[in-house]
Amino acid sequence: MTTRRPRTSCTLVMILRSRRPSDQGWPSIRKQILVEKKLSSQKLGDIMEMTFGGRYVIMMMSIFSIYTGLIYNEFFSVPFELFGPSAYDCRDPSCRDASTVGLIKGGATYPFGLDPKWHGTRSELPFLNSLKMKMSILLGVAQMNLGILLSYFNAKFFENDLNIWYQFVPQMIFLNSLFGYLSLLIIVKWCTGSQADLYHVMIYMFLSPTDDLGENQLFIGQKFLQIVLLLLALVAVPWMLFPKPFLLKKQHKERHQGQSYTPLHSADDPVELEVHQDSHGHEEFEFSEVFVHQLIHTIEFVLGAVSNTASYLRLWALSLAHSELSSVFYEKVLLLAWGFNNVIILVIGIIVFVCATVGVLLVMETLSAFLHALRLHWVEFQNKFYEGDGYKFYPFSFALLDEILGYATEQLIGKCGGNGLFS
């Protein structure tokens, strides 16, 4: 490609499951869904039963994989111009220098997804690396914002105003002042075709916030906005740390005000005095314990905002590994076998290609993507709102059910019998 990096289409959707050619053929899953009533009454094997149980998940994965293939405009690592002609042209009619010197831009930006002409050029890998890394950050910041938003609904449900004003609000401010701003810079760079170095912008936002941005300026007023966002991020940290423990202590004092004094009783009845004191007693507020807990929570969120965002880059690595494996299987197995002009070698090459595609790309890569996605949901997403408090879980048990019914029956008979209903 030319030295100037082209604009990435703003319609590019942030789905990181790159190039799933094997998932284009999902008739078996579709058949399982259409005849699920018949299959549910039959005895299936272990593997078939596991596949049948997850048929809807596999179907959704297949649909999104097909959509991702459209986003990258590829099918089995073969580019196709489904949404119009490419925006790039060769420098000469023979197009021999496409993979060495590069192409020239001769038209408008490709309307949907990635321009197919990127495939096979010398700039393909650097361009896709940058693209997938930025897409991973956008997806991660969006999901972490959703997790913080869910913490607001938790606090609203339990009518906990302290968590709203001293946890939800500063967390949203801190995360979006840094990584929300980074996401904004990524989108602006895509839409404007700027040559700004986002690494330089984010690093010197902390080291030298008042310095001139120079060629890294993406829009007017960027330096002033960076200073404001940096101050907001600095204010959000003590906002999360200090007010909540003091307000909890104040609420505890107001709740138990007047309960620290008990009326005098006769010393002849110590049992009555002890019972009375226990009825008016309450737990002491451990301010140091609450403050340390809040300190740990604040440090965990501040450091986690950085580490969690970096953890979403695993999507970039998975997408890159999958696309490269797909290219290797296509070019080094199928095309290589095709070049021998031998039917036997061609048949062997097709068998190896199909087995590698199903075994590696479909089975192993799907399992890997599932495990990484599960980890991102459990660690990076749920730690923003999930606390693990509440009621202890008791699994269903017939023995426990008999005990509950027996206890309820005894209470009912005792109550009704006392009223003379069973006399």
Automatic annotation (TrEMBL):
Question: Taxonomic classification, please?
Answer: Eukaryota, Viridiplantae, Streptophyta, Embryophyta, Tracheophyta
Family assignment?
Belongs to the V-ATPase 116 kDa subunit family.
User: Annotated Gene Ontology MF terms?
Assistant: ATPase binding; proton-transporting ATPase activity, rotational mechanism
Protein name per UniProt:
V-type proton ATPase subunit a
Q: Which GO terms describe its cellular component?
A: proton-transporting V-type ATPase, V0 domain; vacuolar proton-transporting V-type ATPase complex
Matching InterPro entries = V-ATPase_116kDa_su
Give the membrane topology, semicolon-separated if more than one: Multi-pass membrane protein
User: What GO biological process terms are annotated to this protein in UniProt?
Assistant: vacuolar acidification
